[in-house]
Structure formats: structure tokens, C-alpha cells
Task: inverse folding
């Protein structure tokens, strides 16, 4: 500690601060400096080895209708440092054990004029910093309203950023790669149409925000443990390259109603000179509370298929009939409706999917469009839009339940809320009970369209509270939740591991809505996935959507091999094979990889990573010796070269490589793949081609000599 | 009908209208004229015999973000007239059978440009008019948003009005009596402080609005069947004396999200030259749908007492402790709290009330402040404020339940929501189940403070929907609802007779908060009570509140005899004896009337009525031959003179008269009362003195000659 105080003294002297204290990360590479500026404004700096990551940045909150904000005139009441180191076992995950190791600095600030105390807690991990504001119990400070959180992140340069436009209602944008100084210029182009969207600033961006500095630092800004607080966006002062927190407002424009005692979510800054460290970091989970669900035996990773892509592509419909331009539940008489002949969720069709799942080793079948109301469900701020317990006349719940049971298949329920949040909460108990009664133990919930109550946004405090409520209540019923269009996750699945999935980003569906950028999947793991798994719904084999629906000319900007690699690179305990059974039947050799790949892991090794360009990861299946590897590629063709040193020494494996053919291309030749089998050991070195928008997937199975006979060796 | 068409033709000629049609009330006294103005604007007029009640007034709705509003350019597509006459039996009420008799005119309007249809349905009763807008199912018109409803009520003169200030959040104002032209001048004075209030216009007033014209017409404007629509206020154009509807907005300022088909609430205009007709009218109920609760055996009128007035006066407290300035449910540890020694809802105190109830023939005991959270419950927009199932440590739910059962007493639960509506809905099922499990079949719900979701108001569509939801869900659990601070009723208790009470006006509690005007109770039956019963909580015997709490100098502006009369004049199937047992024990002879008086009736006869001055009503108890009479008086002393011709001919009764003493006065001598017994028949004529703020109450018991011996005869 002596050294710290010496440095702190030097800083005080140099910058005329009233107080400064430093903290080092366990490995010594990261240095945090907390300082009180001359006017009593708290601030912090972060450096990685000798490089500045965050320049002096102010901390604080502006309050509404309050005599004084929590911005300045603070003195130091107390500081405490400590070290924490433990290992914990996630219920599911990329690894079987997670180390939570950090040094902590807790600074208690006192504001004389108001007699208020504010604590800033910093946790410095090897791969980054987390800090939050804490408001301990105190007299005369019980409630307050936040006008804006004023947390700064002063960047040290005009970094390259991988960003999506700031929005109160959607994250479903393609990533833009640009310099920070270029964000303003791209602001309009970065936004595409969505059924619910609300912009707030031309330099507003969302977190998790990935950046790369000119001197090779990878920096990520995000938050952890977003509980009962508005979602944080960032607004850039692009003259000074300073990001400032920008919370999502409520219907009145307020940004947080707080009751003391309270802790804000953690603000996180990950940094490394190796991009793989960002992907491998478990810092976001570590900043969340431990698991609160006692019995987790019912929480199970699963591979599933679904009556879904046929609706997304327009081949079939969620709606049962075209008769009704407007539906009133309980009044509209479906028994008199003429079926439109395109309804996807029919008993017969669902049984076909159940058969396919059972034949190919999938655990579950999702069905959308099973319940009445889809003729009239968004765009009109409709309140009573779904009741979640009334199937269409052609969906026989009991028959499907029994058939699925007989085949050993779990059904996955779909609850589209249409963002009518009160309506969903009113039906939630009944809906969950109905699920349990019909053999469903997982729900995909959806929040399409503008939020009701009107004036609230997808990411405002009130609605954040709702998503959490739905997850916690689901846990009471032993139901797993996969929420779509909800707020992006912030590691809460550590505390509530029944939150097995989220969308909250641009998923595969957009490949049928006009396409996503081919490098999209090389960015998502650096951004969206840091907070938790994404139900990305990979596995599309037919890239020409017009083959499914002649009226849809969308193209899936990905090679088939890239689609296979996603099962590794887009980590999720819930993995869909999203394409239609008939498309899988056309490519049984490639489909074999999807059938083989695991969904839960003992180990994960990030082999290569560069945001926007490529990600290669190897994972060891939980409880088996099998390894799988996936590599996704951006726009430029490349040959990935790396050692297979993750494999167990002195063992031999058959590697089945599913790769792009030489002439493969996401646009012009996406289905050109080659499958080769080779014999490998942990000494082998691979040089594997990946096409534009391509990639490769490998399964490794331990084999004895006789099995290796005749195979080429690497 | 011939005559109608002749008159209509004449009107067309005289006023250059494009269409006009008339309708008469069953008794012929009221005439409605519907007319289409030259620009296709629908309009109506109403006259009573030869007097104009409503001058030509426009009808229509202004829509938001829509190409064209529903205001003009209409043509007549169809008109239909019909007659309806039936009798129906209310589950509880002032009378055992209600006649629903009206002539109807339904005008279907067509708007060429939009191809939309709008139907205006008029129902003309002997005592007034109801009309509503109906939007029948039609193509291309499925949803719309109301910017404002533009229904006019053009008054024929500068009437005297009995009004409370327009407000989106409270009705708890004293009535102001003024000319219409004086409303603006009184606007500020008419508003007193409330924990939630939102004004909108200096000439805004609430309904039900009572008026009296210079030529002796009593006119009332209100609405019926307010379901899934914002509460209607009225805004006065005080140059032209035209009221226009002013709906309560939502958080975004919108005034109604409508899905077609839809019917608005009824707009009602009652009119008579006899004020008693307004009080006796059942028009508001008749405009509601018939009872939707099949088994009503569990809905029972009740007289009750409660642990309530001691908190209202400040004698005791809802809160258990003074230790905590801020409470977080589930976290705050009450077992460690120091009791403040003033908590009202202790097991011992509740048992005392149960004993008193059992001894004096009351059916129920209400207890407020029984559940944790009251230390910190309003003013901070607190979301999770109560859980409705956790008693304070000193309130033994099981012990009280069993004790009440053993004494034959029903407990009445209190659910203060603190206007945190989402929180209440989240707990509603659990709370109702908890009630059933603990022998509670009635709930008093409360909506103190500003509404959550923030930005919504007590009377906006979203919240109207909530009140209805709570009532309907309560019916599922066989629970009766008595909602306080909710929207004022509009006859919905016909459809859901488990809505046995409402506050939604300035109740007796204000007598402990500084006092109400002494003539308040002579206005409420003309306004608030037209839509349904009020839980006014009468029966205060000690008017000097400082005798209960030395720190409270409020005075109850009422004589004791007036308090007795309220059990008749303020009709409710739920009647409280609000004062403390010890105050009743001081006046056992007067208390006898409260013990005797019925709460459900076969017949009611309004004997005298003048808004703001006096009301006298006689009622025959359900299933018995007993009659009771109550008379309340305003500020001026008077002698009421009337015949007892409501009594059964050729029978003799002992009338026990509880009346003001000659020197009684609400302010200076409120407890001066005299009780006399006289022998009466239906030929008797009474001349009974009533003091300022006073009144009298009479019970009539049939008696034979021997019982009448020695009694003076009237």
C-alpha cells in the first residue's frame, strides 16, 4: 500500500486535487485512480499498463426537484480497500467454474450542505473495472428522483467503435463500425425501421459498446446487474471524446425513482490488449449477486427447433384467419372464422416438428402463433391483445402435449405480449400455470411494438422492473425464460439462471427481413453477449428466402458453414436449429454437426478474436471429452491458422471439419461447403480457409488408432 | 309519429337544418330534437314541457393523428325509434324493483369522406336523457385515439350550480354554490389541498353537476356506465354558457384509445321541476348493463364499525413504529422496531371493537393500519408500498379471525394501494385469497396519492380500467368492494353489485381535517350519489375533535341529529357507525337509532328536497314493515312540514323522533338533541324543527293500541 500512497501524493501535487487514491488489479496491469477534484466532484481514471484507458472522468447524479444534486461539494468520509477471490459454479455456462477475483476500493463521500452520504464502490478485475453508486440508509435522504446520471467515460482517443444507435426501445440495429468522431455523421444511416423505436441524440449509442484504440487496446463499456433502474445509454461529447451516461426516461421524462438504501447497476469498463480477454471475461456475471434459486435441477440447456422460421419468412402465418381486421378477445368468434390456409401452428404441422425433433435428438419444440389474437396484435396500442391460454381452433393443446410427451420432447411456449405489459402481468400467473399443466417448462416471451403503459419505453425503469418480475415469477413456477425485445441482459442470469436466453439485439430473423451485415456475428460476442446468452436462432441452410416464400426476396448474408460455427461462437444454453426440417433434410451431412454439437460446456478457449473480423472458439462439452470449435468470419476471406493445443495431450482425435468451399461466398455461393475428417492431437496446427461471411465448425472425438486409420493427419 | 314528423319539418324550415327528428319521453314532458346542422354536424336539443333545458348543442369527437375527426360532414344513414319498458330487481337498493322505461332514437351517421359510421343512441326517460356514441364494426375503422370528445351541453341560462372544481385526481372538494358565470371567479377558492390533485381549467367542473334554473328547473349533468373510457369533466364557455366534455388525459395527453366496436359511456341530463325527481331517479342504473354476477347470495348490505376514526382524528396511528423514515417491504425488520404506542390495529383494540359490534348488532368491523408499510406509504411515488398479506407484529390475524367468527362478526379488509396500481394488481389474487382464508368478504380499497404508473391520473382511461378490473376480479372471489379515492361511480353497481360502496367525494373524514360545509350533505345526494352509494361514514357524536386528540382542533360541522339522519339521506348498503365506541356509550339513547336503522330497502319516498338546503326521505326496510325517515338541513334553521302518507293506511305506528333541540347549532351546540315518541298514522302531518347543520331521524314501528297508550298523537 505504501507505493499507492506515494503515487497518490504525487497526483495530488500535480493536479491540485483535494484527494486521490489508487487501486491496482490483481495482476497489476490495471490502475484505477479515484480523485476528488478541487470543487469536491468525485472522479476516476483508469489505465492499462502505461496506457490511459479512461481519462479523468466525473462521477455523480443530477437530481430532480431537489435542493442539491449529487455532483460536487463532497468530502471524503471514509475509504476502504479489500480483496476478493472465489470460484463459483454456474448452473450452465461456457465454463464449469468461474473465478471472481478483484481488488476493491469503497469511497464514502459526504456532502456537507445536505448531510448526505454517497458511496462509490470500485471493483478492479484483471480484465476491467466495475463501479457503482451506493446510497446507504441515512436520515433525511430516503427518496429521490434522478434527472440524469452524470457518469463520464472520457476516452483517450478517437477510437474505432462498434456501435448501434442509442434508442429507448430497440437494439435491433446492425452495428456500425466507425471512429468515435464519425458517429454523428452516421447517426441517421445507423437507424433502420423498427416497430418500436425512440432516438434521443445524434451521438447517442447503446451499451455494450466495443471499441479499439489506435494503440491496440480493446475497450468495452457496459453495465452489470441492471435491477430496478433505467437502462444506461451513452451520449458522446464528440469534441472531447467524453461519453456520459444517458438513462432511459419514464413517461414524465424522469430517469429513476430511487428509495434509499439503493445501489445502482455497475458501470463496467473492460480493457485488454488481447481481444480474446474481452470475450472470455466473466466480469459482468461476477458483478451480479449469486444464484437466488435454491433448486436448479429444472433448469436445463436445450437444443430446439420450432414452428417459427416459416412465419418469419412469410411462408406461413401466425394468424389463423384473414377474416378479421380487428379482434376482441372473448368476443371475436373464431369458430366462425374461415382459416386462411397458411396458419403455421396447426396440430398436424406441430406434430411434424415433434417427429423431426425426436428423430434428430432435439430436446424441444417452440410453437408461435398457437394462441388467439394474432390477426390484430400490434401497431394500435392494443391493451387486451393476448390471453396466453386460448389456442386457435386448429391447435389441439392436449393432443400436442400428449404427443410431445410420448416422443420425449419438451414444448416451448410462446408469450407474445405485444408490449402490453399490464395485460401480461394480469395473465402471468394463469399463463404460467397453464404452461405447467401442459408440459411446458420454458417460455419465449416477446415485446414487439410500443410499450403500454403508454409513454413508457422498453428500457425505462418501470419496464426493467417488469422484465425482472416476469423472470422471478417464472422461477416460482420452475419456468425458464427466453425474453425477446426486452432489455439487453447485464449478467442477471447469474442470480436468476432461469433467464436462459434473451434476444435484445438483431437476431437471425433480420436475415429474412432484408439481411444483416455479414460481419454482424463477429461483433455480437463483443457486445450483446457480454451480458448473457442470446437466442440468435442460427442454423439457416437455405439462404435464398424466395425459395420458401416467392414474395420474400431477402437473402441470408452467411455461408452454411458460418451458420454451423454460430453454435460455438454465439454461446447460449438454448440453441435453435432455426431452418425448416425440409432444408435440413437436403443437407444431412452438414446437419449432422447441429445434431452433434453440445449446448453446455466445461471449458471454453477463445482461439482468435478481432471484433468485426473473426472469432474462433473451442469448447469442451459438459461431462464429456468432446471438443467443438467454431470460427466465424467477416467480409474478407482469410485462412485461420492456430494450434489445437486445447485438446488433451497424448490423445488422438478425429476432427470433422465443416468448412466453406474455396468458392463459397455469403452472397453468391453460400451453400458451398466441404466436410473433411482428419486425425489430430493437441500438437496439430490448423490452417483453415474461411470465405467472406463464412467460417467453419469442427467436432473433435477422441479415437483410438484403428479409428484413425486412413485419415490424413494434421 | 305523425306529429313528430310535422314538428321536425317545421324545425328544418325554421333553422335551415339538413335533417331533424324529435323524440318524446314516455310521459310526454321531455322533448329531444336531434338535428344535423347544415355542415353535417350532429346536434341535439332538449326541452322540458315548454322550457328549454339544453339549447342546440353539437355532438362529435376530435381524433388524434387521423385524417378526419368525427365532427361534421355527416349524413343520415338510418334512424330508428323504439320503446322499452321493464322492471328489474336490484340485489340491494333504495327500492325493491326498478322500472326502466324510455323511448329511444338511434341515429346512424355516415361520413362520406372517410366512409365511417357513427351511431348516436338517445334514450329519453321521464326524468331525463341519456345518449352515447356507438362505433359499430366497420372496415377501415378499427382503432382510433381521441384528442377530445366534443359533446356540448348548451345551458339555457346562467343557472345556479352546485359544483366542485374540475380535477383529474380528486373529487374531495367542498361544493361551491354559484351562478355559472361565477365559476371562474371562484375557481381558486373552490380548490383545497389534496394529496393528489390536477386542475385543468378555471371553468372546469366535475360531474355529476347539479343546477337550478331561474325558472325552477332542476338539471343534472353526469355520465353512466363509465367503462374503459376516461372520466368526463365539463368545461364551461362562460360567455355562452356552453359546457363541453373534457376527458381525463393519459400520460401522453391522449384522451382515449378505442377499438371498434365500442360504445362510449352515456352522457346524462336529468331534468324536472321537482328536485325530488332527481333524487329518486334510477336513470343512471338503467343505462348500465344488467347484473353480470350469477350467484349474488354472498352480496349483503351491512352496518359496520371500524378501527378508523381514531386514526383519522390522530388519536392513534396506522403506523406501528416511528423508527423508520423509510420502509422496504421484505427488508425492513419490524420485529426489531419499537412500537410507537399509538398503533390502532392491535389485536386487543380490534377485539374491543368486535365486542362492541357484537353487543350492538353490527355486522362487520373494518380495521385500517393492520398491514406493514404505513410508516412510509405516500408522497414518494413508492412502487412496492404494501403487500396486503403481512400483518404488523401486534395484529394477530388468526386470533382476530377466530374471535370475530365466534362473535358472528364479519371482518372488512383494508387495502390501501397508495395509488401504486401495478403493485396492487400484482398482489390482487394473493390478497383476495388471503381475505377469503381469513373470513373477510368485503374490502375497502384506497387510492391515496399520485397514481403509478407515473403520468397517469386517477380518472384516466387506463386507471378506470383498473378499478373495473379490481371489482370484476373481486367478484370471482365473492368479495364486495368499497373503493375510496377511485373514480366516482356511474351506476356500474347494477352490473357488478359487489361494488357496494365508493367514496370518491368529500367524506366525513374531512370533518376531522378542518371540517366541511354544513350543507354538504344536502348536495351529495344530488351529485355524487346519483351514480351509486357512498361510504360517507356517518354517525359522529363528538364534534369537538380535540376531545379525541388535543392536537386536532377540527370541528364536525353537523349536529348529532343530522348525523343520525344521514343513515337515511346518504343511501348506502354499507353504513358505518364511524365514531368511537366510547362516544356511543355516552349517548346510548341516540345511538339506539343507529342500532335500529336498516341498510336495505323495499321502498323509498323523497318527501322534501332542495339542493343545498334540505333533503327528507322515508324508507321502508327490506322485508319488514318498519319505516325510517331522515332529514338533513343546511345552514338556515327551518321547520319541515309534511304528511306521513307513505305509511300504510289504517295502521298505527310509534314514531321515535331524534331531533335537534331548539338551541342546537352545528357549530355552537351540536349535541343538543331531543328524542320524543309519538303515535302516528298515514294521515299524520309532522312539523319538525331542524337547526342549522341539523336535521332529524325517525323510526316508525307498527304498534297496537295498547302500545300507543299515553303517547301524544300527531
Result:
Amino acid at each position: 500500500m505504501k507505493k499507492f500512497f506515494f503515487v497518490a501524493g504525487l497526483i495530488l501535487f500535480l493536479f491540485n486535487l483535494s484527494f486521490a487514491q489508487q487501486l491496482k488489479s490483481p495482476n497489476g496491469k490495471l490502475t484505477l485512480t479515484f480523485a476528488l477534484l478541487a470543487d469536491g466532484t468525485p472522479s476516476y481514471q483508469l489505465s492499462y499498463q502505461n496506457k490511459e484507458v479512461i481519462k479523468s472522468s466525473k462521477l455523480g447524479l443530477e437530481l430532480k426537484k431537489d435542493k442539491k444534486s449529487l455532483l460536487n461539494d463532497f468530502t471524503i468520509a471514509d475509504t476502504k480497500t479489500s480483496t476478493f477471490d472465489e470460484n463459483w459454479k454456474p448452473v450452465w455456462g461456457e465454463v464449469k467454474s468461474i473465478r471472481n477475483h478483484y481488488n476493491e476500493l469503497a469511497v464514502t463521500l459526504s456532502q456537507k450542505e445536505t448531510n448526505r452520504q454517497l458511496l462509490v464502490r470500485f471493483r478492479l478485475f484483471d480484465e476491467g473495472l466495475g463501479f457503482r453508486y451506493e446510497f446507504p440508509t441515512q436520515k433525511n435522504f430516503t427518496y429521490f428522483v434522478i434527472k440524469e446520471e452524470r457518469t463520464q467515460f472520457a476516452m483517450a482517443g478517437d477510437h474505432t467503435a462498434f456501435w448501434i444507435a442509442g434508442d429507448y426501445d430497440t437494439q435491433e440495429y446492425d452495428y456500425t463500425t466507425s471512429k468515435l468522431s464519425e458517429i454523428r455523421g452516421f447517426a441517421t444511416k445507423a437507424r433502420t425501421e423498427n416497430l418500436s423505436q425512440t432516438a434521443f441524440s445524434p451521438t447517442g449509442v447503446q451499451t455494450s459498446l466495443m471499441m479499439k484504440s489506435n494503440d491496440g487496446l480493446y475497450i468495452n463499456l457496459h453495465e452489470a446487474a441492471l435491477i430496478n433502474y433505467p437502462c444506461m445509454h451513452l451520449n458522446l461529447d464528440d469534441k472531447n471524446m467524453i461519453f456520459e451516461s444517458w438513462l432511459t426516461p419514464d413517461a414524465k421524462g424522469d430517469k429513476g425513482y430511487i428509495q434509499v438504501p439503493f445501489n445502482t447497476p455497475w458501470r463496467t469498463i473492460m480493457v485488454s490488449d488481447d481481444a480474446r480477454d474481452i470475450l472470455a471475461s466473466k466480469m459482468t456475471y461476477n458483478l451480479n449477486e449469486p444464484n437466488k434459486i435454491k433448486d436448479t435441477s429444472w433448469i436445463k440447456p436445450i437444443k430446439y427447433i420450432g414452428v417459427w422460421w416459416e412465419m418469419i419468412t412469410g411462408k406461413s402465418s401466425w394468424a389463423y384467419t384473414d377474416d378479421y381486421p380487428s379482434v376482441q378477445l372473448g368476443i371475436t368468434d373464431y369458430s366462425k372464422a374461415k382459416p386462411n390456409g397458411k396458419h403455421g401452428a396447426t396440430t398436424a404441422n406441430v406434430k411434424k416438428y415433434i417427429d423431426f425433433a425426436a428423430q434428430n435428438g432435439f430436446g424441444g419444440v417452440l410453437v408461435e402463433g398457437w394462441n388467439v389474437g394474432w390477426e390484430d396484435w400490434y401497431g394500435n396500442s392494443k391493451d387486451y391483445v393476448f390471453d396466453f391460454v386460448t389456442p386457435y381452433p386448429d391447435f389441439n393443446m392436449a393432443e400436442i402435449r400428449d404427443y410431445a410427451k410420448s416422443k420425449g420432447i419438451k414444448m416451448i411456449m410462446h408469450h407474445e405480449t405485444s408490449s402490453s405489459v399490464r395485460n401480461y402481468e394480469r395473465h402471468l400467473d394463469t399463463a404460467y400455470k397453464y404452461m405447467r399443466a401442459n408440459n411446458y417448462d420454458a417460455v419465449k416471451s416477446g415485446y414487439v411494438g410500443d410499450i403500454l403503459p403508454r409513454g413508457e419505453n422498453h428500457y425505462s425503469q418501470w419496464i426493467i422492473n417488469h422484465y425482472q418480475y416476469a423472470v422471478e415469477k417464472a422461477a416460482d413456477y420452475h419456468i425458464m425464460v427466453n425474453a425477446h425485445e426486452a432489455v439487453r441482459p447485464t449478467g442477471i442470469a447469474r442470480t436468476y439462471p432461469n433467464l436462459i436466453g434473451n434476444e435484445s439485439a438483431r437476431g437471425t430473423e433480420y436475415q429474412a427481413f432484408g439481411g444483416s451485415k455479414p460481419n454482424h456475428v463477429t461483433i455480437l460476442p463483443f457486445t450483446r453477449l457480454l451480458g448473457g446468452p442470446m437466442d440468435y436462432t442460427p442454423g439457416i441452410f437455405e439462404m435464398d428466402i424466395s425459395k420458401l416464400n416467392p414474395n420474400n426476396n431477402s437473402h441470408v448474408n452467411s455461408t452454411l458453414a458460418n451458420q454451423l460455427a454460430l453454435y460455438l461462437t454465439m454461446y447460449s444454453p438454448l440453441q435453435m436449429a432455426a431452418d425448416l426440417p425440409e432444408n435440413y433434410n437436403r443437407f444431412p451431412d452438414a446437419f449432422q454437426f447441429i445434431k452433434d454439437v453440445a449446448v453446455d460446456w466445461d471449458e471454453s478457449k477463445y482461439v482468435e478474436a478481432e471484433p468485426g473480423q473473426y472469432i474462433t472458439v473451442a469448447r469442451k462439452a459438459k461431462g464429456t471429452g468432446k471438443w467443438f470449435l467454431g470460427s466465424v468470419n467477416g467480409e474478407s476471406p482469410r485462412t485461420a491458422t492456430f494450434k489445437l493445443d486445447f485438446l488433451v495431450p497424448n490423445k488422438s482425435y478425429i476432427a470433422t471439419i465443416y468448412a466453406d468451399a474455396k468458392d463459397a461466398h455469403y452472397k453468391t455461393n453460400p451453400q458451398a461447403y466441404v466436410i473433411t475428417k482428419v486425425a489430430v492431437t493437441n500438437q496439430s496446427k490448423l490452417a483453415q480457409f474461411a470465405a467472406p461471411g463464412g467460417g467453419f465448425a469442427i467436432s473433435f472425438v477422441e479415437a483410438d488408432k484403428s479409428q484413425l486409420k486412413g485419415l490424413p493427419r494434421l
In short: The first helix of chain A runs from residue 2 to 15. The two ends of chain A are 51 Å apart (CA to CA). Chain A touches chain B at residues 137, 139-140, 142-143, 145, 250-252, 254, 257, 259-261, 325-326, 328, 376, 380-383, 422, 425-426, 429, 453-456, 462, 465, 469 (CB under 8 Å).
